[in-house]
Specification:
It is a single chain. This protein has helices at 2-28, 51-75, 82-102, 109-128, 136-164, 172-191, 199-205, 213-222, 224-246, 248-254, 263-280, 288-314, 320-338, 342-349, 356-380, 387-417. The chain is an all-alpha fold. The protein has a single domain (2-417), classed as MFS general substrate transporter like domains (Growth Hormone, Chain: A).
């Protein structure tokens, strides 16, 4: 009877945590993605670089700086005051969105850098409420699919605001944030009321603790080959997820979808449901190593789906809409495990006394660095790209590379799991 009550309480805590984490991070996207719905065709170039490219580079650069800082900040994060920290960071990100339309071009490009700096830290704080629980697979999957749903939803809301109120595209980011500022503040307070993992959950998943610099160094060298491989895999996934997110309006325009606010949500919602079911179903598997291996298999399958669907689209076998749906599903099948179950189960498999934030921010820092370098290279050398063609060809080649690298990494961790090391 006592065990049943404990399981019931853990179940309710998981549902509550998943809901609050999902809604919180969904609101965060309202301060990050609305500017991407603009085409900015009337804006002057800066240093010969397209204005929208400058905005994307600026924000991703700010995000990249925060991710590198986050390796230390999030891995050392304490359990007190996390909700207040989120509110503070959200407000810091919103102020530059007010300055963005008020400042002249090109000075307002820097506003997106200042906007990205605080936003890059928030995911680690939110996920710290989710990790180390019996239901982390479900919670993490729910939080991770907020990347998919929220990106499309926020773009649809932003596009609706622009069309309905005839807003200048420069003001769209600020007013989109205005709609979400009160909800995100309330949700941050609710996050702080999430109960900590129970004793049973700690026994199953190990306790999650702040990490020192020496512990971070030790963990890295213990799994050096696997972590470096993960970094390269994640760079590929982040690069093409980021391009898909930031230039979705351009890609859909080239596919023939113009002034359709719902198009951003229609594909992403389907992808979110499928990925959520796949990842959340791992909650029924207690063996941590089994789920750790399965999550890597999903990454392999994701790369294969992205590559095959792109080939079929280029051969005119499937439509542009179906291609965006399938390639998005494949990329998120690879991307979401990193942000939900992969490192949580890795920590539990190898009995590590640390936290997911360290591993995830290591991945994110290099992933976003690669993204900003590619976009900067394109702009600096005045390379005129059709984003539809560039994205399609890029996914085709990198899905092949990602598949091979993921299989090699999978073999490495299978061997590594047979000699589990317990950190004292």
């Amino acid at each position: 009877m006592i065990q049943n009550n404990t399981n019931y309480r853990n179940f309710l805590a998981s549902i509550y945590t998943a809901l609050i984490c999902f809604l919180t991070y969904a609101c965060v996207y309202a301060f990050r993605k609305p500017f991407t719905i603009g085409l900015y065709t009337n804006q002057a170039t800066f240093l010969g670089i397209d204005f929208k490219n400058c905005l994307v580079i600026s924000q991703v650069l700010g995000y990249t700086f925060s991710k590198f800082y986050g390796v230390k900040y999030i891995s050392e994060l304490q359990k007190i005051g996390r909700g207040k920290a989120i509110i503070f960071l959200i407000l810091l990100s919103w102020i530059p969105l007010l300055l963005f339309p008020l400042m002249p071009v090109p000075l307002n490009i820097a506003c997106l850098f200042l906007n990205g700096l605080p936003l890059g830290i928030i995911w680690g704080i939110v996920f710290s409420f989710a990790e180390g629980r019996r239901g982390t697979d479900f919670i993490g999957a729910t939080l991770a699919v907020s990347f998919i749903v929220s990106s499309g939803l926020v773009k649809s809301v932003a596009k609706w605001l622009e069309l309905f109120f005839q807003l200048n595209e420069m003001w769209v980011p600020f007013y989109t944030g205005l709609l979400f500022i009160i909800p995100v503040i309330l949700l941050a307070f609710l996050l702080d009321r999430i109960p900590p993992p129970s004793k049973e959950e700690i026994a199953l998943k190990t306790i999650r603790l702040p990490m020192t610099g020496m512990e971070r160094k030790s963990f890295f060298f213990q799994f050096k080959f696997g972590l470096i491989s993960f970094i390269f895999i994640y760079i590929i996934l982040t690069l093409f997820r980021d391009i898909r997110d930031n230039f979705a309006a351009d890609i859909w325009k080239d596919l023939g979808f113009v002034n359709d606010a719902s198009i951003f949500t229609s594909t992403e919602l389907t992808i979110a449901i499928i990925v959520l079911v796949l990842i959340a179903s791992m909650i029924f598997i207690k063996n941590n190593n089994t789920v750790f291996i399965i999550s890597q298999c999903l990454i392999v399958l994701g790369f294969l789906m992205a590559g095959v669907s792109t080939y079929l689209f280029q051969q005119h076998i499937i439509s542009g809409f179906n291609w965006m749906l399938l390639v998005g599903l494949g990329l998120y099948m690879g991307y979401i495990p990193f942000n939900s179950i992969l490192f949580d189960r890795m920590i539990a498999t190898f009995k590590l006394k640390g936290n997911v934030g360290y591993f995830m921010y290591m991945m994110d820092s290099f992933g976003y660095l690669a993204s900003v370098l590619v976009i900067s290279f394109k702009g600096a050398f005045h390379i005129k790209l059709n984003w539809l063609i560039f994205y399609g060809n890029g996914v085709l080649w990198f899905s092949f590379i990602g598949t091979i690298l993921s299989i090699i990494t999978l073999i490495y961790f299978i061997k590594k799991s047979k000699q589990i090391i317990i950190y004292e």
